[in-house]
Structure formats: C-alpha cells, structure tokens
C-alpha cells in the first residue's frame, strides 16, 4: 500500500498544465509552490477524514456514519458564516477556532440526538445524521442567501477540490493530520469504547472522556478540511468499512491502514479529476461523490446481512 | 469485602432499589437470586459503578466506588453485564485481551499474553481464538465475554446472569471455574436464575424482591421450600441431594 501511495504521489507531482523539466527554476517553483502542496493536501485530507470516520463510528457504535453525513461540515460552515457576518476582518486563526468550535458543537449535538436511538436499529443513526446535516445546511444556505454570501458558503459546503491549494494556503491541514495521529495514540481507548459504555466502564475507562476526546478529533479534522479545501464526502465512510471488513476493528493495527487507504483514495480521486478532462479539472469531491454514493449504497445493502 | 450502605436507586421516580444494606465477605461465591424486577441487575451495576453514583455508599475492598478512579477499581473488580452487544468486528483473542487493559494499558507483556492464553483455554475458546466474535453462536460469544472478564484477574468478579446462552456443559464448566477462583482466594458475586446452580455452587445466597434484600445467609438457610415459594410466589419444593439442597418445581 505504501508503494501505491508513493506511486500516486509521484504521478500527482507529474500531472499538470505546466510541463516540468529538470534543472529549470520555473519547474522547481511550480513543484514547491503548487504541486507538492497539492499532493500533501490530498494525502493529509484523505488520511485525516478516514481516521475521523473511524472515530465517529466508534463513538456512536454504528459503522454507517461519518462526520460528513452527520452534519459536522455544515456546522463548521455555520461557524465560518457567523464569523464572516459578525467580524468579517477577523484574522484567519479566529475563523479556524470558531469553525472548529462549531463543528464540535455539531458533532456533540449529533451524539446527544442519537443517544435515545436503540443500538440495534442500525439505519436510524445514519438517517438522523442526514436529517441533522440537512437542517443545519439549509439554515446556513438561508442566511447566506439573505446576506449575499452564497459564493463563500458554496466553497465550504460543495464538493471540495484541491486546485486552489498553493504553499501558504493548505498548512492548516497539518493540524487535521496531527489530530488524526493523536487518535491513533488513543486507538485502544476508541476500540474499547466500541464494546459499549458498560464494558468500557468496567475496564476502567470513562466513556464520556473518550467520547469528548473523539469529538475533538472529529471537529478539528472536519474544520481544517472544510476551511482548506471544502467538503470531501464518503472517505470517512467507505475506507473504514473496507478496512474493517478486511482486518476487523482492532484499531491499533487498523488505523494506520485506514489512514493510508484514505490518503490513496483522495489522491487517486484528485488525480482522476485532473486527467479526465485535461487540461481542465473536475473537483476531487465530485469524483468521490459519484464513486462514493454508489459504494455507500453497496455497503448499506451488504451491511444488512452483516450486523445482527 | 463489598460494603453497601443505604443504597437507593430510582428511574423517573420509580424505586428500583430501596435503601439496601449488604456486606459481602471475600473468598466466597455469593449468588444473588430473586424474581424479575427485584433489582438484582441494578444492585450489581451500582456496585460495579456502571450506573452513576446514587444515594448511598458502595465500597469495594475499602474503596468508595463514587470517589475512586475507575481505572483503579478495574484492578479490584471485573464486571460482565447482560448486554454484550458488540458493534465492532473483533477477534475472540482481541476481545479477551482487552481484559488486560487495566493492567497493561495497551502495552501487553509476557504475563498479560499468558493470562489471555490461559483464559482462552479455560473457556474452551482455543479453536475460536482467531474468529470474529460476530460469527460465533450466542453461547460461544458469551464465553468470549466471560473470558475477557476473568482475564482481568481481579479480587472480585461480578457477573450478571452469566449462564445466558450457555449449554449445560459450559454452564457447569463456568461454575467449576468460579469455584477454582474462589479456592485460590477470589470472590464472586453472581446473579443466577437457575436456583440449582445457586444451590449447587454458591457459598452464600442473597435473595431480593421488589428492590429490597429479603433474605441472606448460607445456602441451607435461604434455599428452603418456604423461603423460595414465598420469594417467587409459586410452589417450589426443596429436597436434598448429596448434602446440597435440590430445587424442584415441576411436580
């Protein structure tokens, strides 16, 4: 898998409207300002979103959710919209903090909402997530229309893409990557959380503390991705499910594979989007949206027999 | 020693447990019996700090469960409840290994691995060790969860209806295993519905009804025709077999 990732990364650096030549200062500039940041952005986004998907699935004990289908990006967008309306000249870090805080609020709201749903009704939880993201998304769209800010909002909420990534405008994604790495440190705790709150308590964990930490990871990853490249759907859903099917949910072993697979998927989608109508581009989010929706339906279809 | 003082619990105004007082001596198998809704599960869950701290006090080996760190308590007592729904895909060995978490916090040493292997052997799980729990039968999965609780190797083991889904042979094997733990100095609190398992293996019986402890004592004192018929409000006859009470209810 690491070989696949390196090959894709190499291809990603080589593809673009500008032709690269060894020893050409212009080529070096293209590489360092555009191509390398873009490749890194796709890798970080994919890895972080896939890990955030696993974390959310362990928190709600349901494998058919991810932050993107549970309203977290919409909540982050709501926070960004609020800052833009109230303090349009706030520095970037303020916007980041507000986006992360509102993504946290959105994810926490989802966890509270589904607490009363029976765990065996596995399709109610993803449904509740879709309803929540629909409601929050509609609210954001309504306010954005009133304030004539639809252009901003569509960047965050519509399909994410990497064509705008240049050095200096993607580095926040490292925070998302760091959050995902922290999740791996707590991998056993998230795995034990999956045994249920009673078993986790009996083993000496505080389920609430683990859930709070997990929500923080989800919020940081979501906010950084939404702000930097926009919403990328389905990575957090498909990758964890495929990896779980292959190797189970012993997260200490599987989270690195999840991160690697997420990076490969997003990098490949970005690459396909750049090649399909070359020299123009299709956003990676749209490629994933098309491919991911089909894969998601397939998972739901097979998941019915899978969970009992 | 488990000490329970004035323990009360209610769910939306409905009393489930009414000011229970109890002292459980170590080195014994204590069976908790009583009809459905008597408060047996609630009592075990409160002792094992699964439910939030209510009115009253619970101490396990001198540690107040409301104020002691959960991680510390996990080295004092293991608990297996009735709900063992697994949402994650874990292999039997991985599940059992989580029983070592309170001791190794994810960095298992040779002693931890040995404990896991021993539990897999004790619960007849060696051939299933690399199977995913979700592919097992109800009884096999129950044995995997029991193995996890036992692997915690705590002075106290608290089990809520552990015989669920177990066939007769594995149910007897579990009770025999608990007796061995007891003989090695361990203490067990176990909720049982099958009175003959209680009569046959327990050292001490606690009978509950309507959220209160109504009788307590050695097996011969509590497992009697009058007491049980009264407790379950159905005709039950107690006879004797090889020095142990034998509970009959099908005559």
Query: What's the overall geometry of chain B?
Result: globular
Q: Give the low-pLDDT segments of chain A.
A: none
Helix and strand succession of chain A?
HHHHHHHHHHHHH
Strand content of chain B: 25-35%
Give the class of chain B from helix and strand content and strand pairing: alpha/beta
The major sheet of chain A is characterized as:
none
Which strand order does the major sheet of chain B show? 6-7-8-3-9-10
Q: What order do the helices and strands of chain B follow?
A: EEEHEEHEHHHHEHEHEEHHEE
Largest interface: A-B, 29 and 36 residues
Rg of chain B, Å, rounded: 18 Å
Structural account:
With 308 residues, chain A is mainly α. Chain A contains 13 helices and no strands. Chain A has helices spanning 2-14, 25-60, 72-86, 92-114, 124-146, 150-157, 173-185, 187-193, 197-202, 207-228, 235-247, 251-275, 284-306. In chain A, α11 (235-247) crosses α13. The longest helix of chain A has 36 residues, at 25-60. The model of chain A has no long low-confidence stretch (mean pLDDT 88). Chain B is α/β, with parallel strands linked by helices. In chain B, 33% of the residues lie in helices and 28% in strands. In chain B, the strands form 3 sheets. Chain B has a 6-stranded mixed sheet with strand order 6-7-8-3-9-10, with helices on both faces. In chain B, strands 2-1-4-5 form a 4-stranded antiparallel sheet, covered by helices on one side. In chain B, a hairpin with a 2-residue loop joins β11 (237-241) and β12. In chain B, α5 packs antiparallel against α6. The mean pLDDT of chain B is 94. Chains A and B meet through α8 and α9 of A and α2 and β6 of B. Chain B: Residues 2-235 form the ABC transporter domain. Chain B: Pfam families: ABC_tran. Chain B: It is a peripheral membrane protein.
Summarize the model shown.
With 308 residues, chain A is mostly helical.
Main traits of this protein?
heterodimer, A: 308 residues, mainly alpha, 13 helices, globular, B: alpha/beta, 6-stranded mixed beta sheet, 4-stranded antiparallel beta sheet, 10 helices, transport (chain B), ion transport (chain B), iron (chain B)
């Amino acid at each position: 898998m690491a070989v696949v990732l390196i090959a894709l990364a190499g291809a990603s650096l080589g593809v673009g409207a500008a032709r690269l030549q060894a020893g050409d200062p212009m080529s070096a500039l293209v590489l360092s300002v555009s191509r390398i940041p873009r490749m890194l952005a796709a890798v970080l986004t994919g890895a972080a979103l896939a890990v955030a998907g696993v974390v959310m699935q362990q928190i709600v004990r349901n494998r058919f959710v991810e932050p993107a289908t549970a309203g977290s990006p919409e909540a982050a967008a709501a926070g960004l919209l609020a800052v833009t309306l109230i303090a349009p000249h706030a520095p970037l870090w303020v916007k980041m903090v507000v986006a992360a805080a509102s993504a946290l609020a959105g994810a926490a709201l989802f966890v509270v909402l589904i607490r009363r749903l029976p765990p065996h009704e596995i399709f109610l939880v993803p449904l509740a997530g879709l309803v929540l993201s629909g409601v929050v998304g509609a609210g954001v769209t309504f306010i954005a229309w009133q304030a004539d800010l639809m252009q901003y909002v569509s960047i965050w909420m519509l399909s994410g893409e990497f064509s705008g990534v240049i050095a200096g405008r993607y580095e926040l994604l490292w925070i998302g990557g760091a959050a995902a790495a922290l999740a791996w440190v707590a991998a056993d705790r998230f795995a034990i959380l999956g045994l249920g709150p009673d078993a986790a308590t009996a083993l000496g964990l505080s389920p609430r503390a683990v859930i709070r930490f997990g929500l923080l990871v989800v919020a940081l990853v979501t906010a950084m991705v939404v702000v930097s490249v926009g919403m990328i759907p389905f990575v957090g859903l498909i990758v964890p499910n495929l990896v779980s099917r292959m190797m189970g949910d012993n997260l200490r072993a599987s989270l690195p594979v999840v991160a690697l697979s997420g990076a490969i998927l997003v990098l490949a989608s970005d690459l396909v989007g750049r090649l399909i109508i070359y020299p123009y581009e299709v956003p990676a989010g749209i490629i994933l949206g098309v491919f991911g929706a089909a894969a998601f339906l397939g998972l739901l279809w097979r998941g019915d027999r899978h969970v009992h | 020693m488990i000490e329970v003082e004035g323990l009360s619990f209610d769910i939306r105004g409905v009393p489930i447990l009414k000011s229970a007082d109890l002292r459980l001596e170590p080195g014994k198998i204590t069976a908790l019996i009583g009809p459905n809704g008597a408060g047996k599960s609630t009592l075990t869950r409160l002792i094992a700090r699964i439910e939030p701290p209510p009115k009253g006090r619970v101490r396990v080996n001198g540690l107040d469960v409301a104020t002691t760190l959960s991680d510390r308590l996990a080295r004092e007592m293991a608990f297996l409840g009735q709900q063992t729904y697994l949402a994650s895909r874990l292999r039997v060995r991985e599940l059992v290994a989580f029983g070592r978490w309170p001791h190794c916090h994810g960095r298992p040493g040779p002693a931890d691995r040995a404990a896991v292997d021993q539990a897999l052997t004790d619960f007849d799980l060696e051939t299933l060790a690399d199977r995913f729990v979700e592919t097992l039968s109800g009884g096999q999965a129950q044995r995997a969860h029991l193995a996890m609780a036992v692997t915690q190797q705590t002075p106290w083991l608290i089990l809520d209806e552990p015989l669920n889904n177990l066939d007769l042979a594995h149910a007897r094997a579990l009770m025999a295993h608990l007796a061995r733990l007891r003989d090695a100095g361990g203490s067990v609190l176990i909720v049982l519905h099958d009175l003959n398992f209680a009569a046959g293996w327990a050292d001490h019986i606690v009978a509950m009804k309507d959220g209160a402890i109504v009788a307590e004592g050695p097996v011969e004192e509590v497992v009697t025709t009058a007491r049980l018929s009264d407790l379950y409000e159905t005709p039950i006859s107690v006879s004797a077999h090889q020095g142990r009470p034998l509970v009959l209810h099908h005559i």
